Amino acid sequence: MKRFIAIALMLALCISAFASCAPSEAPEEDIPSIKDAVAYVKTVYKNAAETTTKDFERIGAVPVGDVKFDIEWTVDVSEDSVKIVRAENGIVTIDINEDSPEEVAYVLTATIKDAEGNTETLTWNHVLPASMNVDGMTYAEIVDYAYTIESGVKIEDTYRLSGTITSIDTAWSEDYQNITVTIAVAGKEDKPIMCYRLKGDGAKDLAVGNVITVEGMFKNYNGTIEFDAGCTLVGMGDIPSQTALLDAAFILPAGDSLAYPSVMFGVIESIPTAWSEQYGNITVNMQVEDKIVQAYRLKGEGAKDLAVGDKITVAGIIKNYNGTVEFDAGCLLVPNEDYHSVKNALSGYKLLAGEAQEGTKTITGTISNIDTAWSEDYQNITVTIVAGGLENYKIMCYRLKGEGAKDLTVGDTITVTGTLKNYNGTIEFDAGCTLDAVVKSEEPAPVAPEDPAEIVAAAYALEAGASLPYTCTLTGVIASIDTAWSEQYGNITVTITVADNPIQCFRLKGEGAAELAVGDTITVTGMIKNYNGTVEFDAGCTLDAVTKA
Q1: Tens-digit pLDDT profile for residues 353-390
Q2: Run of H or E residues at 428
Q3: In angstroms, how far is CA 519 from the centroid of its own chain?
Q4: With 0-12 CB in 10 A as exposed, 13-18 as middle and 19+ as buried, what is 176?
Q5: What span, in angstroms and rounded, lies between the C-alpha atoms of 216 and 237?
Q6: Cβ contacts of 202 within 8 Å, gap of 6 or more
Q7: Which residues, 6 or more positions from 300, have their beta carbon under 8 angstroms from its beta carbon?
Q8: Residue 192 in contact with residue 183, Cβ under 8 Å?
């Protein structure tokens, strides 16, 4: 598109140069006209893609010589699907609904106007594909939706759930080749789903305790939420649907990519490029439902030993490379059991700054950072986790609460539930998130160096937002009182000098803190972080000792 715009601008300059000749040098018919503007717009957008998977831009005016022709862009569908947004600089954005629940065909019209009110129109046919919400709904969200159905109503859409069989309501029937069972979805055990007259390979041998995946249409039958007759057993275990993501990937124009990272699982069908020891990657083709998706230059633990027939899970950016749908270079092999956590974590990276998801998500990940130490006052802690080894897509757990939160350390694997949001570019579980489970790291917790200079050096090497993985104790001389003692909150903020470097002690508490003064020598214990370039002991740090100046 940039190439077309450049060519078009050159054309405009040519038109402008020719049309701006003095009247004595140019014939009457070469005076700029609306026809020139129409030709310009037609040239720029004659090869515009019909399928529109993302927002795109159009010019708001055409300069021909000294004459400017305004363009009004319109569409013939509701703003719920496509809307026109004009910027102050005149550029127009065709803002499409990437979460459109259905395919929408629409006509984009350019109405070109001259100063006398004459108009000419150009039109382009476009298609907004369905299911652009490639993350889909979580099982928990689907269950909650099913429980909103009114009595007697059946939903004519197909959904898929995985859950544990809690009861066999009607035994297998040889005559009708079906069985009725009730399943409980993890985290929604209080909202059982009946699978009425369930059919499919393996249904005959189902038993209480089996984990199964079922697909069908929901119905509220006299207060019982169920998959209606005709539902099918997809298989044993958890087999999530990937249809929406595949559909979105396979309608990408050549050279285009999905705007957000995605995760897929499949079976290796072939290995186009063997493992490279030099580059530490491998390229494989995997069968995903009825399609082949390539994982290009795949990296990650276990990638070296992959073989045809292996079931794998891959995360990264999906693109169409000259007709081949692939995970682009940099994609990562993640543990199969982490599929749902990775999917939920990546869904947060679709959020714009300030946006939050509806409902809650659950993610299991390994703590990479203690961002704010445990607060006895507020009974919470802030940590950052990595799901499935995706270091580039971390999730902060802001003011995390729950049993065991007090003793969390870097390396622990935790399960957290909450609402995901984008806070100024940081993808995080919002305040109120809860700690569901903890698996303590087998590695010993990191311990601070004994030499204060080493601690200070490590602190000053931190990136903005990061913190040291251990509790520190430092002694230094107060260089400034940054925030005076607060009787209301019982804390003070001071800056001390340690190893010739300033360290702020943010909201310092402890006996004697109220009387601190510049020049006093103090000993402080807490978590050290880089807060927007300021190296500091985080809130919750404590005053251990004071030597008055």
Answers
A1: 899 988 889 999 999 989 888 888 899 999 999 999 99
A2: strand 426-429
A3: 48
A4: exposed
A5: 17
A6: 233, 235, 236
A7: 332, 333, 334, 389
A8: yes
Is this prediction's pTM over 0.85? no
Residue 527 β-bridge partners: 471
Residue 296 structure tokens? 């290009």
Query: β-strands 501-508, 534-537: how paired?
Result: parallel
Q: How far apart are CA 37 and CA 72, in angstroms?
A: 13
Exposed e or buried b for every residue in 110-131, given b needs 16+ CB within 10 A? Answer: bebbbeeeeebeeebebebbbb
More confident residue, 542 or 54: 542
Pairing of strands 104-113, 119-128: antiparallel
Q: What are the structure tokens assigned to 269, written together?
A: 């069908």
Structure tokens at 222: 């006299």
Classify residue 196 by burial, with Cβ atoms within 10 Å: 0-12, 13-18, 19+: buried
Q: How far apart are CA 382 and CA 386, in angstroms?
A: 14
- Contact at 8 Å (CB) between 214 and 195? yes
One-character DSSP codes across 202-217: TGGG--TT-EEEEEEE
The values of phi and psi at residue 42, to 5°, are -65, -40
Residue type at position 65: G
Q: What angle do CA 294, 300, 304 make, to 5 degrees?
A: 80
Structure tokens belonging to residue 385: 């986790």
430 in helix, strand or coil? coil
| 3-state secondary structure at position 102 | coil
358: DSSP letter: S
